[in-house]
Amino acid sequence: MLVSLQWLKELVHIPAATEELTEKLTDSGSEIEGVERPGEHLSDIVIGEIKAIDSHASRDALKVADVDCGGEGVFRCVTGAPNAAVGQRVPFALPGGRLADGTVIGEREFDGVLSSGMALSAGELGIPEAETEFGLLELPDNAPVGKDCISWLNLDDTVLDVAITPNRGDLLSMQGMAREVAGIIPGAELREQPLPGLGDEEWPVSFDGLVIEDSGCLLYTLGLAEGITIAPSPLPQRIRLARSGIRPINNVVDVTNLVMLHWGQPLHAFDLDRLPAGDIGVRSAAEGERLVTLDGKERLLEEGDLCITSGGTSIGLAGVMGGEDTEVTGETKRIALESAVFAYDKVGRTSRRLGLGSEAAFRFARGVARTKTMPALAQALQLFREQAGARTDYRPLVSGEPAEPERTVSLRRSVLQRMLMQDDLERAAAILSGLGFAETGRSDEKRTFTVPAARLDVHIEEDLVEEVARVEGYDKVPSRIPPQLYRPGTTGDMVSVTRRLRETCMGRGYLEIVTYSFVAPQDVEALGFPDDDVRGRPLPVANPISQDQSVMRTQLLPGLLKALSRNLRSGIRGPLRLFETGNVFHRTGNGHCEPVRIGGILSPGRAQLALYGQEDFLSVKGDVLSLFEAVGLRPRFEQAREPFGHAGQTAHIYIGDRLIGYLATVKSAPADRMGINRPVYAFELDLEHLAGRSEVHFGSDLRYPPVYRDIAIMVPRKAGARELAEMIAELAGEWAGHIQLFDTYEGAGIPEGAKSLAFSIAYRHPERTLNDEEVEVVHQHVREELAQRGYQLR
What we know:
By secondary structure, the chain is α+β, with helices and mostly antiparallel strands. The chain contains 19 helices and 41 strands. The strands form twelve sheets. A seven-stranded mixed sheet has the order 27-30-33-37-36-35-34, sandwiched between helices. Strands 6-5-4-7-10 form a five-stranded antiparallel sheet, with no helix packed on it. Strands 13-16-19-20-21 form a five-stranded mixed sheet. Strand 17 (290-292) and strand 18 (298-300) form a beta hairpin.
């Protein structure tokens, strides 16, 4: 925010030099990013009056003017300004004077005419925004001839560029900055600022009132100004706006901007005669609704955007920008003046989504106190009376409560001691009082304060401690070493299992990446989740950075696919393995949950590396098995379906009966959308169900050798081997050791639609060596039981 020091001194007495003020503001949290003195090069410029004008004898475009500069004398100068006229009062640079760009004015001859000094334009004074027409800067008729023009126009001002933190919306105003300075500068005192009153007459026009349909409008007031004359603002106001970084437009728009800068309360003026109907309303936009804003651009609105309406038709984006159809023009005679407060989250979301920044949106997104609404409206209406000849004696329309809910917060001596290493409650109370906190209760160990209405950032005791610390100085807080510095630390189950899995992934050749938790809605839609799948209904971000990051991810896969795509576009030809650990976000009834996942993705590439061999679905399954071995668990894979996975190459992964993840070959559609034209394999596991569930057991060595028997069974082609192996283990009993599938056969001798599975069974006794007869009895029992259950043995 640009702060005019002269304007600030009108509101608060500052017994400190500019250097001390900037240092104090920076130390208290409002960093000064720059100090500008726009008129520092100006010198020897006075107010002159043009007494006579003659045409130049040989150059038609030039005029010769006699300028009376009071005690400095009368100077004859040559000017090319088309608006130069007798009786006009203008800034005049005396011979030897300097302009804003450092140019020194002397005497110069123009085809036989000696020009001494120079009548100046606004640009030559360094305020081009203040001019209303091309040529000389016209001063008011009451400008004192011969007086120093630099000081009379306040061109010797100092402008502070103050960085306001997002929580201090109260500082986005001259009043707020004055209160801050009064609280941090010893001896500074706020100056008395009389507030204008509001009229109480009924509106002389047919108007149905206010229709507020959305809770995002906390307070709405509407004032009326009749018989207004649109014209340029007075020169001092134009200069003040220019110094504050706002371009002057006319006396109506300029008043709304000046009052906004003064109070921090955005205002908006509607041309009353251009409203579609005799009412003003606030509602949520309909999906797909369109509005042409003041900048001439058509905006596509979404549900949740706050609209200002008249007769149900949108005429503005609440808190962001007005509509083109109701803007103030040179023919405007009646104005409906809006002074309102809108929910900061809704205004901020709309402004960011549309990329539509404005001074109003900047303030509303940081919070505007409702107590500013009526004073700002009253001051603007008063300025309309004084500068535009308007009649404003009408009672404003109000919807909502103009007062902020009262907040009281206590500060304890013990908390002050614990956080700041000092317990001077009296000193703390004095600091808070200077910042506008009213003490409402006290005891030896505690003080209670009423929070100023404008301080929307203060709610808890720690906020009061922060206020004391920033004014007192963070450098005053003693340093201390944390107690028990050398106590051994411990890691929880989640940290431990995550660490082991990360190490395993890196050992298998995967590179770790970190992606945003925010994704584009299209990234989720591309995975093809059905409507009843929670993964297809992502949570929206309240204040998205951009439309491409407007929802929370429900899987790690979209981020992994994007990272893979970026790496492939960079020219990588070989295999690429990426993994990530992080939260995903799922809806749960009225709330949401944030499970922690580990996910990986693999692209074989065009050139295979000998280190890995042939990369395919089964090699990635081996990677997943390695992860489970790292945490001592045995997973179960079951063929399944995922909307983004190829049928027949998609599996769900279980620990016991709990589904904890998937393994899939990614379909071409989501991969093609990311520009990936290679095979892609992906997996994702829920870490919360892996932590603390290690099943690693230690025992004695197996001293006695196994006895092996093979068995081949004919089964339907779609049958899985895992279920059959579990059945064999159950039938073989306690002697059955490792059971290994070693052959799958389809072809000659096997019926159509069937296949042969061959298993090797290791029989072992823990205390002695088994003989062939004992093993044969058990193995024959297994064969007979399988035959009775309908299996054909080979």
